[in-house]
TrEMBL record:
Entry protein name: Glutamine synthetase
PROSITE patterns found in the cross-reference section: GLNA_1, GLNA_ATP, GS_BETA_GRASP, GS_CATALYTIC
SUPFAM superfamilies noted in UniProt: Glutamine synthetase, N-terminal domain, Glutamine synthetase/guanido kinase
Reported cofactor(s): Mg(2+)
Similarity comment text for this entry: Belongs to the glutamine synthetase family.
GO BP annotation list: glutamine biosynthetic process
Length: 441
């Protein structure tokens, strides 16, 4: 037993932790966990815990289903919303197969591999995701799309229970080591955003999962449902997960160059060029459901064209005005239904491809693209993001760089899921179709 493990065993005892959750995520980014009593901690931390991966979406086939959960010691946290008596702590785990081989279908492992590629080039990747979500009313234990409050953007008055939920989420995340930068009411009724400080990409991907888990658990205690669905209600803003990204080298922000045009370094420009080049394929993971594509439409501050800008929020990539250590590029397409490990891995791989191959982005688009006609967009060579899951999946399959990044196992499973979802959607006759056609035809 290493001294590190001993340290954690002491901590678990001192903090009176009774249960330990070993957490990981499936290919769709849904958190899974196995709970063990604290007396099993020594075994779990030393050897890991075997589990049956065949029932986890996108994991093993039946014939090779045994998987080993290996807790990452750095991710230890007590779950603050659980009772003070008999405390619950969690570790986020890496997944291995026989012979301690990292499992190629583990999203966290996909991200780790990509981080190692970046490290070879001397880079670390920092991300700052902004998660938006709705708080909906639960009726008889079932989530509805009924609002809990009718506040508006940046409203101050703490008028309702939704405000209490947001406060409790902020407090819980702070207890778990998040540095909360801002929390506010969003544009739509009952929609909220909580921003936390950026950090290294693996930590922030873990935090996205923790964030959703905390928000859902705390909302439930108030009889509410925290929904991270991209577009739960037609006609009003959906929920995004804009992701700010920057590369650093030798501890310094590699996007900042005080002497360059716009004070953006070549590395920053190539990163943006790479993201734009691979934008269509990234969409498959950043916008992973049928519903995701109902958010990527004009008019609600969500992007639908492949462009970049220093100012306007209709662009896919925006470069905020801050410079120095805060120099960064914001990718505005991801939504909070995405698997953060896979999404960040694809962003990083696309950016690194830009740097390796010196991919210069086209000129910035500083006017509002929603207001351009198709001819002008064509002249400016502004292409569109995929309009559906089927389209983005096809784009991924055409993108060798991102297929290599995700690996065969993950790509095969993403394709299978995209086909299954598309077929299921097609097999349904939707109310819109009846409204539109039934009386006329
Ligand atoms: P917006 O104007 O889009 O709302 P914010 O100003 O709220 O964006 O910033 C959002 C995120 O950007 C935060 O999570 C913040 O920590 C992050 N951020 C700041 N500096 C960097 C950086 N150098 N690299 C990556 N993310 C950063
Ligand atoms: Mg924000
Ligand atoms: Mg902001
Ligand atoms: Mg927002
Ligand atoms: Mg933003």
């Amino acid at each position: 037993m290493t001294t590190d493990i001993q340290k954690f065993l002491k901590k678990i005892e001192a903090e009176n932790v009774k249960f330990i959750r070993l957490q990981f995520t499936d290919i769709q980014g849904l958190p899974k966990n196995v709970s063990i009593p604290a007396i099993q901690a020594e075994k779990a931390l030393t050897d890991g815990i075997w589990f049956d991966g065949s029932s986890i979406e996108g994991f093993a086939r039946i014939e090779e289903s045994d998987m080993l959960l290996k807790p990452d010691l750095a991710t230890y946290a007590v779950l603050p919303w659980r009772p003070g008596e008999g405390k619950v702590a969690r570790f986020i785990c890496d997944i291995q197969t026989y012979g301690n081989k990292p499992f190629e279908g583990d999203p966290r492992n996909v991200l780790r591999r990509t981080i190692a590629e970046a490290a070879k080039m001397g880079f670390t990747f920092n991300t700052g995701p902004e998660l938006e979500f709705f708080l909906f009313r639960m009726i008889d234990g079932v989530p509805t799309t009924e609002f809990e409050d009718r506040g508006a953007y940046f409203d101050l008055a703490p008028t309702d229970a939704a405000e209490d939920v947001r406060r409790d989420v902020v407090l819980a995340l702070s207890d778990m080591g998040f540095e909360i930068e801002a929390s506010h009411h969003e544009v739509a009724d009952s929609q909220h955003e909580i921003d936390f400080k950026y950090g290294d990409v693996l930590t922030t991907a873990d935090r996205v999962i923790t964030f959703k888990f905390a928000a859902k658990s705390i909302a439930l205690q108030y009889g509410m449902h925290a929904s991270f669905m991209a577009k739960p209600i037609a006609g009003i803003n959906g929920s995004g997960m804009h992701t700010h990204g920057s590369l650093s080298k030798n501890g310094k922000n590699a996007f900042y160059d005080p002497n360059a045009e716009l004070q953006l370094s070549d590395t920053a420009m190539y990163y943006i060029g790479g993201l734009l080049k691979h934008a269509k394929a990234i969409t498959r993971v950043a916008n992973p459901t049928i519903n995701s594509y109902k958010r990527l439409v004009p008019g609600y501050e969500a992007p639908c064209y492949i462009s970049w800008s220093a100012a306007n929020r209709s662009a896919l990539i925006r470069v905020p005005a801050a410079r120095g250590n805060s120099t960064r590029a914001e990718l505005r397409s991801p939504d909070p239904m995405c698997n953060p490990y896979l999404t960040f891995a694809c962003m990083l791989a696309a950016g690194l491809d830009g740097v390796k191959n010196k991919i210069m982005p086209p000129d910035m688009t500083n006017s509002n693209i929603y207001h351009m006609d198709a001819k002008l967009r064509k002249k400016l060579r502004i292409d569109m993001l995929p309009g559906s899951l089927a389209e983005s999946n096809a784009a991924l399959l055409r993108d060798d760089v991102l297929c290599d990044t995700l690996g065969v196992h993950v790509v095969d499973n993403l394709s299978r899921i995209a086909e299954m979802e598309t077929d299921a959607f097609r097999l349904t006759v939707h109310p819109w179709e009846l409204d539109r056609y039934l009386a006329t035809y």
